[in-house]
Amino acid sequence: MKNIFLTIFCTILWSSTFGQDPLYLKNKNLPCVERTFFVYVHIAMDSVGDTNMPLQRLDSLFKAANDAFASICISFDYCKIDTIVDYSFDDIKDDIEVGLVTSRFQKKRRINLYFTDKVLDERVNSFSVHNGITKSDECIVIVPKSGKGLMHELGHTFGLYHTFEAKFGLEFVNQSNCATAGDLICDTPADPNIGPNIPCEFISNLKDSNGDYYKTEIGNYMSHHFCAHCFFSREQYEVMAKNYLNSTFKMW
Ligand SMILES: [Zn+2]
């Protein structure tokens, strides 16, 4: 009898130690990029000549970004801050204006972080180039001066898709196609993107084509529920680190 108890105890101990769901291992054993990216910061003035960006806020945004990427040993610091005096760039209305501002201010081989009052779609109000970290002159992140969406756009910059990405086909709730559809990542639940109002909650009767109800995670940085953003998943970290480490050239 004693041996039976011992066997049961050891089985429980083993499963609680080694047999955990990978999610419970959280961010242990992730690749370590060991890199600080020195970011060029460009801040647009408004029509009365104010940047509306106190240095204290900039520091707190960089701290938040450093916290979000610490699991893969990536950090950010700013190497230069300049001011965009032409206040028309405080409201970037379309891709042409994105091209205009970046053609004037973009520094090659750096992450370029632009702060404007508005950029493109007012509901999302942020912009970046997908996988920009692997492109010498397209590492462009534009966010409002509140910093809303910064981690989301950095996620795109390091190669992540939206959790509701549809260009590879819709991911099923049961995730049987998670590697080839949706965001191509298997530890983020299928997300139907219930916009356009992008609430800070997920209440939906939507079902996928199998008839299963969506149970998404609005806190993932790559969802469009910006007010709830607070984490990247383990696989998202792996993809971001791999994209940078496998890139043929490196940002400074
Ligand atoms: Zn996005």
N-C termini distance: 64 Å
**Number of helical runs?**
5
CATH level 4 superfamily of the largest domain? Collagenase (Catalytic Domain)
Please name the CATH topology of the largest domain: Collagenase (Catalytic Domain)
Ligand identities: zinc ion
Annotation keywords:
globular; two-stranded parallel ribbon; 252 residues; single chain; disordered N terminus; binds zinc ion; alpha/beta; Collagenase (Catalytic Domain); 2 domains; 5-stranded mixed β-sheet
Give your account of this protein's structure.
By secondary structure, the protein is an alpha/beta fold. It has two domains: 35-160, 3-Layer(aba) Sandwich (Collagenase (Catalytic Domain)); 161-231, no CATH class. It has helices spanning 2-17, 55-69, 95-105, 150-157, 234-245, and strands spanning 35-44, 74-84, 91-92, 112-116, 118-119, 127-128, 140-144. The strands form two sheets. A five-stranded mixed sheet has the order 2-1-4-7-6, with helices on one face. The radius of gyration is 21 Å and the shape is globular. The termini are far apart. The model is unreliable at 1-24 (pLDDT under 50). Bound molecules: zinc ion. The site of zinc ion has 3 residues, from helix 4.
